[in-house]
């Protein structure tokens, strides 16, 4: 592994890593690291780990919807540095992004078919990726999940090279950590088991033992996390409602992300479903071709294509079973690096087998595709920079929220909030982040008991944010027409309502 990551052969990776670090630093220079509702959960849980030794969030609810590792990771840094996540978050993410870039370059250097030009192109695609830059500009667990993925790829490759049990155990431990960073880490477990099953070099008894070893270690931390969740919260991953989006809709949403990643579509999503189908089929074709050609999956390229295929398929299918946010660039970002490897590396191997005249045509075509791709990425990056350089990263650290009339009003000490009144909000995480006031989210429309509890609350306020509207929660019509709350204060971006009997 140390030979893989050696600086001697990876000066270009180091330069790219420094570029990635600088971009994240510049993106977050104005307002600091980006913070969304998930980030409020992560940061408050990290603080409660240190102050209370409990995995609870700002509502004092047990952390169940999210795995435990990322807030534990943040709390460990807080313990060592004495700083808050919003203080060290930008430097942490810039460092993580630079490590991901360097490791990606080091892996590319070890591909079966090498090219310095190809490596430079891949590194530039990663550094300028709008999706990855978005992820590493926010306090999101994907920042470390992607790093775990790359380390898994390295250790699995090392295992297949020497069939070292130490390498297999290391891969299993990394996978276990990935699973308690994001629940989608089970896709890495699936990838590892599939790779072990498809390998034909080992005798069956040894292969079976290694599969059992990986299968016991890799989900261990996740099992502990899920059991703990059930004991303290009554559910393993929180209340997960049945999905109301069909498979075709989720394929369209995934395809829309791919359209944004590929500049050739210019934001046109009419063929998004077909693009998703093409990418999945293309990955499956490469996977099957490489396996049946060599009857093993031991190269970095093959491990990457296996994960990309399994991860994308899993995310689309699970979104059709369990309800969560729309599939977006953030959710699919762990597949970006394996995907660009899988969809481009075949050009290098093909160019080395064709005649010189055809090779020139292929190089010209590949260069044209690369330039178009990078032009699209640079255009998206410039648009992002134009928005964040003076306003900050979108989220609660952005000027729009920090200087919101509603926020500035509720931050004042002399407020008309009466004692004994419950404070509800459609974005209660924002209320807590800016004021530290205890309160509740407005109830979910589907949760009849919580809706009734809200209706029965005889002394309460609602702080409404126009930018925090959540279609899953009761809305303005319910507040004014059903609950019949009285308007206390109207703002350009929100309002405060009161109810008393």
Strand composition percent: 5-15%
Share in helix: 55-70%
Biggest beta sheet summary? 5 strands, mixed
Characterize the overall form. Answer: globular
Strands, helices and their partners?
Elements: H1 11-27, H2 37-52, H3 69-81, H4 85-109, H5 116-127, H6 130-135, H7 142-162, H8 165-179, H9 186-198, H10 204-217, H11 220-233, H12 247-261, H13 272-294, H14 300-319, H15 329-332, H16 336-351, H17 356-388, H18 399-402, H19 405-410, E1 422-425, H20 428-435, E2 440-441, H21 448-456, E3 459-465, H22 476-482, E4 486-491, E5 494-500
Parallel strand pairs: 1-2, 1-3
Antiparallel strand pairs: 3-5, 4-5
Describe the structure.
With 501 residues, the protein is mainly α. Among the domains are: 113 residues, no CATH class; 97 residues. 62% of the residues lie in helices and 5% in strands. It has 22 helices and 5 strands. It is globular and about 85 Å long. The mean pLDDT is 91. Keywords: Cell membrane, Glycosyltransferase, Membrane, Transferase, Transmembrane, Transmembrane helix. GO terms for molecular function: pentosyltransferase activity. It comes from Ginsengibacter hankyongi.
């Amino acid at each position: 592994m140390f030979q893989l990551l050696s600086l001697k052969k990876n000066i270009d990776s180091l330069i790219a890593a420094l570029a990635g670090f600088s971009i994240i630093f510049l993106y977050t220079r104005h307002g600091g690291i980006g913070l969304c509702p998930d980030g409020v959960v992560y940061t408050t849980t990290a603080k409660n780990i240190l102050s209370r030794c409990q995995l609870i969030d700002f509502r004092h609810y047990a952390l169940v919807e999210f795995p435990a590792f990322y807030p534990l990771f943040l709390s460990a840094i807080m313990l060592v540095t004495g700083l808050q996540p919003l203080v060290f978050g930008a430097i942490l993410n810039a460092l993580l992004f630079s490590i991901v870039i360097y490791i990606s370059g080091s892996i590319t250097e070890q591909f079966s078919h090498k090219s310095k030009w190809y490596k430079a192109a891949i590194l530039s695609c990663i550094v300028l990726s709008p999706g990855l830059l978005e992820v590493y500009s926010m306090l999101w667990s994907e920042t470390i999940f992607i790093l775990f993925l790359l380390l898994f790829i390295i250790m699995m490759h090392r295992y297949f090279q020497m069939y070292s049990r130490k390498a297999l155990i290391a891969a299993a431990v990394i996978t276990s950590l990935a699973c308690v960073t994001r629940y989608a880490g089970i896709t890495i477990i699936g990838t590892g088991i599939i790779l072990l099953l498809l390998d034909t070099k080992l005798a069956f008894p040894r292969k079976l033992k290694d599969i059992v070893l990986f299968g016991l270690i890799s989900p261990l931390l996740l099992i502990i996390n899920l059991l703990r969740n059930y004991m303290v919260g009554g559910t393993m991953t929180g209340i997960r409602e049945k999905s109301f989006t069909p498979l075709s809709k989720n394929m369209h949403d995934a395809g829309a992300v791919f359209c944004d990643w590929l500049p050739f579509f210019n934001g046109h999503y009419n063929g998004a479903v077909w693009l998703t189908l093409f990418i999945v089929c293309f990955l499956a074709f490469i996977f099957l071709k490489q396996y049946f050609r060599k009857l093993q999956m031991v190269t970095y390229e093959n491990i990457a294509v296996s994960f990309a295929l399994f991860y994308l398929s899993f995310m689309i299918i699970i979104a059709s079973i369990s309800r969560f946010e729309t599939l977006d660039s953030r959710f699919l970002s762990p597949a970006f690096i394996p995907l660009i490897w899988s969809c481009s590396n075949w050009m290098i191997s093909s160019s080395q087998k064709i005649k010189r005249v055809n090779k020139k045509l292929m190089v010209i075509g590949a260069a044209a595709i690369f330039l178009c791709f990078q032009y699209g990425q640079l255009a998206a990056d410039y648009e992002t920079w134009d928005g964040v350089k003076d306003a900050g990263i979108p989220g609660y650290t952005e000027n729009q929220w920090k200087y919101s009339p509603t926020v500035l009003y509720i931050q004042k000490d002399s407020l008309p909030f009466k004692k004994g009144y419950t404070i509800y909000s459609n974005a209660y995480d924002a209320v807590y982040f800016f004021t530290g006031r205890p309160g509740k989210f407005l109830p979910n429309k589907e949760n009849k008991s919580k809706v009734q509890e809200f209706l029965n609350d005889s002394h309460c306020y609602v702080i409404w944010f126009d930018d925090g509207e959540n279609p899953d929660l009761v809305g303005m019509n319910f507040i004014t027409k059903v609950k019949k709350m009285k308007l206390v204060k109207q703002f350009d971006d929100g309002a405060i309502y009161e109810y008393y009997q």
